[in-house]
Amino acid sequence: MDKRGARFFAIGATALSALVFGALTLDSHRQFDKLTNAQNLTPQVVSGKDVWHKYNCINCHTLFGEGAYYAPDLTKITQHRGEAYLTAYMRDPSRFYDEQRHRRLMPRQNLSEQEIKDLIVFLDWVSKVDNQGWPPRPILVTGATIPGTDLSAEQRRQGPSPGTPQTLPPGARPVTPEQDPIALGQALFRSVQPACNACHSVAPGVNLAGPSLSGLATRAAQTVADPGYKGGARDAAGYIRESIVQPSAHLVPGAMYSANGQSFMPNTYGSSLQPQQIDQLVAYLATLK
């Protein structure tokens, strides 16, 4: 190729690249409203965004993977924690985490009740933005380790590598391809939205946002037999089912998992899960004795 041909090739390639780039830019702008959940951008969402900036939340937290990385990414936080939990947490974070145990302590910002409501609405709007899988996984702060395993926190978040044996916590069962309701329930425990294992561990003594479910079936039977029980279940399986679909039917006295008569457990599973899925979850949880 002579100089003239090389010049025309460079000009043509540049023009073609510019055309493709321009087309992709126009296509992105065409989809922005849908991708960014713009149709639900209400005045309360904007007010919540102002609260986010006012208290410099991004100095510690991240949204869409962007921020300080000192504290958890909050892109999908409202899909992992319900409004009751987030409200109580923002009122007084020290009731949930302490510096001695977790080596971190979110400062109490003294937000007003309206600021808390607006901030939760903003975070809920953020959670519905189509971020196309970014960040690839939420940054979870649990403040706990699973006894009896030698996996790091990062390895537990990512899961086992192909061909690598996995050390399972107590009560866990390997998921089999057979239509085993217990194995299917264990799979649902990790895959439903919000994911059960985002708040609950099945290892003894490992309390996350919710209590450890180790020994759940035994405690369920004891709770139903207790005269102070206020729910409608008649046996352990019924209590487990009730805890999934009606978490506020019975609140454990003195436990920091509820506020103002409302459980922090999401109350959406009864409508978001099919009856057979609830049966599978109950079947799995009933094995945790």
From TrEMBL:
Keywords: Electron transport, Heme, Iron, Metal-binding, Transport. GO terms for molecular function: electron transfer activity; heme binding; metal ion binding. The keyword Electron transport applies. Residues 151-179 are annotated as: Disordered. Residues 43-127, 180-289 form the Cytochrome c domain. InterPro entries: Cyt_c-like_dom, Cyt_c-like_dom_sf, Cytochrome_c550/c551-like. PROSITE patterns: CYTC. PANTHER family: CYTOCHROME C-553-LIKE (PTHR37823:SF1). This is C-type cytochrome. It comes from Azohydromonas caseinilytica.
